[in-house]
Amino acid sequence: MKSKLLLILSLFLFLQNINAQIFDTLTICNGDSAYIYNNWETVTGNYPHSSGITTLIVNPTPTLIGNFVLNGNASQPIPNTYQLTQAINGQLGSAWNSVTLDLTQPFSFDVDLFFGNNDGGADGIAFLLQQVSTNVGSSGGNLGYYGISPSFCVEFDTWQNGLINSDPWYDHIAVQKNGNLVHSSSNNLVSPTGVPPGNINIEDGQWHNVIFSWNPSINNFRVVFDGTTLVNYNNNIISTIFGNNPSVYWGFTAATGGANNLQQFRVNSLGIQLPDTSICHYDTVQIDPQVNSTNYSYLWTPNYNISNDTLISPYFSPDTTTTYALEITNSYGCSSIGSFTIFVDTTNVVNFTTISPLCEGDTPINLNFASPIGGTYSGSGVVNNIFTPDVNTIGVNMITYNYISSNGCSDSTTQNISVGASTSSIINTAVCDSYTWNIDGQTYTSSGAYTSISTNSSGCTHVDSLVLTINNSTSASVSVLACDSYTWNIDGQTYTSSGVYTSISTNASGCTHVDSLVLTLTNSTSASVSVTVCNSYTWNIDGQIYTSSGVYTSTTTNAAGCTHVDSLVLTINNSTSTSISVSACNSYTWPNNGQSYNNSGIYTDVNINASGCIHTDTLNLTISNNSSNTITVTACDSYTWNIDGQTYTSSGVYTSTTTNASGCTHVDSLVLTLGNSTSASVNVTACDSYVWPNNGQLYNSSGTYVSSNINVAGCNHYDTLNLIINYSTSNTTIATVCDTTYIWSINGQSYNSSGNYTVISTNAAGCTHTEILNLIVGYSDGISVILNDVHISCHGSNDGSIILNPIGGTPPYQYLWYNGSTSQSLNSLYAGTYNFTITDDNGCIFDSVATLNEPNQIFLDFVATSSICRYDESVLSINISNSTSNIYTVSLQDSILKSFIIDTNGLLIPGGIPITLTPNYSGEVIIISLTDNNGCTEIFNDDVHIEVKQLPDIYLNEEDVCVGHPSYTLNQATPQGGTYYINDDMTDYFDVENLEPGSYNISYQYTDPVTLCYNEIDEIITIRESPVAGLMFNSQPADINNAIIFFRDNSSDFVNSVWDLGDGTIIYDELNFSHTYIDTGTYIIKYFITNQYHCSDSVIENLVINPVCYTYIPSSFTPNDDGINDYFYPSVIGGNNYNMIIYDRWGGVIYNEDNGKWDGILKNNLINSGVYSYSITVLDFKNKPFIYTGIITLIK
Questions:
Q1: What whole-number distance in Å separates Cα of residue 764 and Cα of residue 766?
Q2: Domain 859-949, CATH among 1.10.1040.10, 2.60.40.730, 2.40.50.140, 1.20.1070.10
Q3: Is the dihedral of CA 125, 127, 132, 133 positive or negative?
């Protein structure tokens, strides 16, 4: 903040001392000092010395005033001025700065305080550090800070509560803690001291400068009042008051009670307020230094992760704890510097170790790979930080790890866990003859199913299956006789020579099929002729006439029975002709025949063209002629010929050649004769004006003028006048004097009478100069005044006025009042005398005085009835004395401002009764003012206290009930001991079970036994309709093969529902839906519904899913003790048991057992291979019998 010019200034001033007397000006910033003539100076001023005078200018540093949160009656009527209370009783105002303080950092707040101008006013202003909030404050004689705890307070107390707070009799300053105002208590930190020093009144209508400062390095708090240190307190308030929490709110409070004052403050400078802050890693924070001006420049250092280091309020995103400084510079180049620290919490930065790919069905893994530990894992397949690789997690699973540090900073990262599936593929293929499988390299020549097991790209099991069908190839042959060529329908090919051909295709089995063609071909014949003729040709083969070139054919049959074709290649050439049109001048020679033609006409020339046919040329000829024209011209100096645009300056004959309308040559001729112009010039100097003889014109300004006429050659002659005009001059002096003579400096003459006087001389240009004096001589004794004065209408008012009406003298007049006003009149005046001076236009002066009067002051006494219960009346007894009227309008305030018309005895007009009030709370009733019939208002602000005993707070504490709720006794009201009424019947029994749904008025009445104040409460309790629950689902029972159950609501009058389907499935707010059960059994279905009144109902049903009884019976078995298919028995699913009987071919029973397996043994011997019959009876889960009969083949 300090200027860095001290050393330079000291050296500079030292050099001054060794020279002769020097006058110099130095500039420093506020807070710096300059060494001037052996003294350190800090104040703007002139510092004289034998060697000279040094002027010191102290420029201000940036003004930093902050922003405040206002509460209660606090307001901001103008920028940077905060009114805490107005001069009204019963006010409270608080203003808290919007930036919290860090008491580990020093501060210095420079403010001005205004305590009002009423020495009998109250209550004062308090400066607080507190940790509650920015919307606290208290009223009355408590200076607005009573009860704010924890707090550190500097109070400026202007009201003496001697018995209550141990206040001294004078205005004082003291330091208190924790919202306690008592100076004799342990909460007093600095004893009361008179303020200002000497116990002089501070309610003096003046602003007082106060500086509050805190130095945490030495735990010192200081208050400097108007330059005098009044508080110098040393203690660690962070630990002793604020529990080692350095973060506090700060601001000002004030209040008024039965006395008042206008109490306000304004900020001079708060310094840069930059509290330390903490952020999480990768977070961004915007810092607001609470600077109110955009006229300053800003520089944040270091420029590390700052959005813009020259903005007022940039964004900061450091990745490590960093201390930043802000330098604010004003237009004088003076700076203020503040700093703060951003603490960065980096403990939340997490890492997640890569997890190797897994396979479906692998052992679940405990997710404990991320650090720091203590976070939570989430994602597909994760339950309680355990990841299970199963069919539901096949693929890439994004697992998120979230960690929150002890400071509430969070970070997260993700890791993909890949789960590979066990894969398989099936190839169904049909091939011919044989197949080599690329999976295992084997060649197969017979149909069948084959498998190969390997590992897939995920590292998991892969099974390849081959379902193979082997089919066979086929062939066919055909013989054909044809002409020239043959197109075989088998392959679509056209053959032109005899031979044996084959075509290979695919048969119905998809294998090779070979077709063979044995082909014999005979040939067609042809003949061709070429002919060239002119225009047309007749062909003797077909007798046709052809007129255009081309190839023509005629087809017949030859001796071999095949086609014979005759061809005519015909060229037709044509006769030709051309025609041209020619325009020529005078004659034309035609190149075709070398003939020359002089006349227009049509001419022809005939010869043979390149095709040997006749060619005819035709000439359409037009012959045109040339033209000419000549003019003769006489001109002066030059001539521009419009034919060629040329300007000619000498006589002669000139020609121009062009083309006429026929396109032939046209010649124009000019015969030109030229004469010359002449000129003359004269220089003249004259006074005021000049007449030029050449043209008789009068000129009154300098300039160059030209006159023209015709010379002997008939051309122009020009005369030029170079004229200089000089001017006569004059000057007029207007002078006024009063009661004296006037000496004119022009001629030294004295004049004592008004008049016009002249002196004539010659000026520097040699022309006449005239001096004129207009003199006015006036006299003071000729001025008087008539006063138009309006006296004061009401005592203490300022509606008086005075108008000055001067008589005599010389207008206009100038006016000067006692207060410096220069208007003709004064308005808004109080009673008193007012001096004035009138000066006329001659400087003559008239002095006098005007007096304004006012009516007498009236007096008031009043009392009020106290104490009362809330909503009772308090009667006001009012007496008005020293009055000149019997009718007054009284303005009073309890909770609101009210007006009444009363007589001098305080009785209402009309009515004749006293004023009654019904206040809700104890407090002051204030008579603000009285206004008489003339509109005169007297301000009193007198108050009396009315104690209002509050009605007991009673609560019914009952809620609405639903139909079906049991009847009960009302006993929840507080306080207890009152009387209940239901629909105006005195009873406390609410018979819900026998009452209709609807609303019932419950009243509770109670009288406080201490205050004897009565209160009652009425509430409407409603018996609400309950909904009726119902549900429907598929017909029962259902089996596991058809376990999709459709559920449907069958309820009424509800808004929310919950289905419990008995298998752990919960469904909300669905009216109908389907659900699939995956196991058999009996399920308890519960359905709950709730209506808009939160009344509910439920229904419970049983749902049965039966198993499906399925029986499989094989057709053969091989009881050879190889462990494969050694027994015959039915495979029963969903049955309870079965009985199996085996018969031989003659119907004899050879086996009969329940739930047994036949091993082919009869009487301890294996029976012969053959076919046997059986009868199997299966009992399902309901013991319903199902009988199956058939044959079984026994194979040894």
A1: 5
A2: 2.60.40.730
A3: positive
Kindly list the distances between the CA atom of residue 958 and the CA atoms of 335, 1018, 1024, in Å, as whole numbers in the listed order. Answer: 67, 11, 14
Q: What is the CATH number of domain 1031-1106?
A: 2.60.40.10
H or E segment and range at residue 999: strand 998-1007
Architecture of the domain defined by 351-420:
Sandwich (2.60)
Q: Where are the beta strands (DSSP E) in 141-261?
A: 151-157, 172-177, 188-194, 207-215, 220-225, 228-234, 247-255
The reported pLDDT for the residue numbered 20 is 37
Q: 383-425: per-residue pLDDT in tens?
A: 888 888 887 888 888 888 888 877 778 777 888 888 888 777 7
Radius of gyration for the chain, computed over Cα atoms and rounded to the nearest angstrom: 64
Q: Which two tokens stand for residue 818?
A: 């006692």
Q: Which CATH class is domain 1110-1194?
A: mainly beta
Exposure string (b/e) for 633-664, b if CB count within 10 Å is 16 or more?
Answer: eeeeeebebeeeeeebeeeeeeeeeeeeeeee
The pLDDT assigned to 937 comes to 83
Choose the most confident range, by mean pLDDT, from 500-504, 744-748, 932-936. 744-748
Residues 6 or more apart whose CB falls under 8 angstroms from that of 546 comprise 536, 537, 538, 539, 552, 568, 570, 572
β-bridge pairing 92-97 and 247-255? antiparallel
Alpha-carbon torsion (815, 817, 823, 829), positive or negative: negative
* CA 137/CA 723 separation, integer angstroms: 91
pLDDT tens figures, 1122-1137 = 989 999 999 988 788 9
What's the rounded Cα separation, in Å, for the pair 259 and 757?
A: 74
Cα–Cα distance, 971 to 1196 (Å, whole number): 93
At 933, give phi and psi (nearest 5°). Answer: -65, -20
CB contact burial 240-268 (16+ within 10 A = b; e otherwise) = ebbeeebebbbbbbbbbbbbbbbbbbbbb
Question: What is the value of pTM for the model shown?
Answer: 0.34
Token code pair at residue 117? 């101008």
Among 1.10.8, 2.60.40, 3.30.420, 3.40.50, name the CATH number for the domain at 280-344: 2.60.40
Distance, in Å, from the CA atom of 658 to the CA atom of 569, rounded to the nearest integer, reads 62
Indicate whether 1004 pLDDT > 80.
yes
